């Protein structure tokens, strides 16, 4: 009885003993404060503003105004540019990553490609717009070289940098490197044993990719496409610096509503931003879900 009582007392003491305070949370506090101040609070402010009028009263008129033809065309233009740049960026980036990881190229190619991709994926805004204007503008370097050497005037054949195709081409500069960075770990996750087992069973290279590799990589490819779509859909600095207000895309229209002198309606701008949050949120949600599925395969 005595031993049993002592044991029960020890268990009771251990059960009521308070857990020591973990100081590890201090390392996360700056991130939580940054997220609260620059993401959650601004998002909450624009969501509230989307349902208010200029006097601060509740209204659904801002949401109803999203059905205006100009706004619908802006959404369609932005979705089209984002989808085109995401698709082309995914295809070209997949080819580059595949060549660097599995293409048996010289060993210096992969680190050089990854270094360039890390820099180019963050190169956007005014510097990128100026670079393309200086390269492919009407008086750009490449435009002048093509005309002086080959007698080809690309603008006479319909090319225009300040257009749907021109902005898509500009976005590809950071979309392709981003695809390389996203897909390289997935390609590294393809086990050599899978390729060897398929070869032992008599499968050709095409059969291996069609029946084994691509089904495993498909969630990564589709998820990367959705991430590239969201990445270009929210871009404004590059588009505004390159085209000004000549191209009707949603980010430029949003900027005009909030900061413009003519189309100044901040609450309508909040509604436009709310629509963008919904579209990019769905894209990022699909990317996260597909990435988790790919992670289970690789593990």
What does this structure look like?
The chain crosses the membrane at residues 20-41, 79-101, 113-134, 141-159, 171-190, 211-230, 236-256, 268-290. Belongs to the binding-protein-dependent transport system permease family. CysTW subfamily. Pfam families: BPD_transp_1. It comes from Kaistia dalseonensis. The structure is a single chain. The chain is built from 13 helices and no strands. The protein has 299 residues and is an all-alpha fold. It has a single domain, classed as MetI-like (MetI-like fold). α4 crosses α10, α5 packs across α8 and α8 (164-188) crosses α10. The protein is globular.
Number of domains: 1
CATH architecture: Orthogonal Bundle
> Which oligomeric form is depicted?
single chain
The N- to C-terminal Cα distance equals: 51 Å
Give a quick rundown of the structure.
This protein is mostly helical and 299 residues long. Helices cover 74% and strands 0% of the residues.
List the helices and strands and how they pair.
Blueprint: H1 2-16, H2 29-49, H3 61-64, H4 69-102, H5 109-120, H6 126-136, H7 141-150, H8 164-188, H9 192-200, H10 205-233, H11 237-243, H12 250-259, H13 266-298
Name its key features.
MetI-like fold, mainly alpha, MetI-like, 299 residues, globular, 13 helices, cell membrane, transport, transmembrane, single chain, Spermidine/putrescine transport system permease protein
């Amino acid at each position: 009885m005595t031993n049993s009582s002592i044991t029960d007392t020890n268990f009771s003491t251990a059960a009521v003993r308070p857990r020591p305070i973990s100081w590890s949370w201090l390392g996360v506090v700056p991130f939580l404060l940054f997220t609260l101040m620059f993401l959650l609070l601004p998002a909450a402010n624009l969501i509230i503003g989307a349902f208010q009028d200029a006097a601060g009263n509740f209204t659904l008129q801002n949401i109803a105004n999203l059905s205006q033809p100009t706004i619908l065309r802006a959404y369609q233009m932005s979705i089209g540019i984002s989808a085109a740049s995401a698709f082309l960026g995914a295809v070209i980036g997949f080819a580059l990553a595949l060549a660097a990881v599995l293409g048996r190229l010289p060993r210096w190619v992969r680190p050089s490609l990854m270094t360039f991709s890390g820099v180019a994926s963050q190169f956007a805004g005014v510097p990128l717009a100026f670079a393309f204007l200086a390269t492919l503008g009407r008086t750009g370097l490449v435009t002048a070289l093509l005309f002086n050497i080959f007698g080809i005037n690309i603008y006479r054949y319909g090319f225009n940098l300040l257009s749907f195709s021109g902005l898509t081409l500009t976005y590809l500069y950071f979309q392709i490197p981003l695809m390389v960075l996203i897909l390289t770990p997935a390609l590294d996750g393809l086990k050599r044993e899978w390729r060897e087992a398929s070869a032992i069973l008599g499968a050709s290279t095409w059969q291996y990719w069609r029946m084994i590799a691509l089904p495993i990589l498909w969630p990564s490819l589709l998820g990367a496409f959705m991430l590239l779509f969201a990445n270009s859909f929210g871009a404004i600095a590059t588009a505004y610096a390159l085209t000004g207000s000549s191209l009707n895309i949603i980010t430029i229209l949003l900027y005009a509503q909030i900061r413009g002198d003519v189309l100044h309606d901040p609450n309508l701008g909040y509604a436009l931003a709310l629509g963008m949050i919904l579209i990019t949120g769905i894209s990022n949600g699909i990317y996260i879900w597909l990435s988790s599925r790919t992670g289970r395969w690789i593990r």
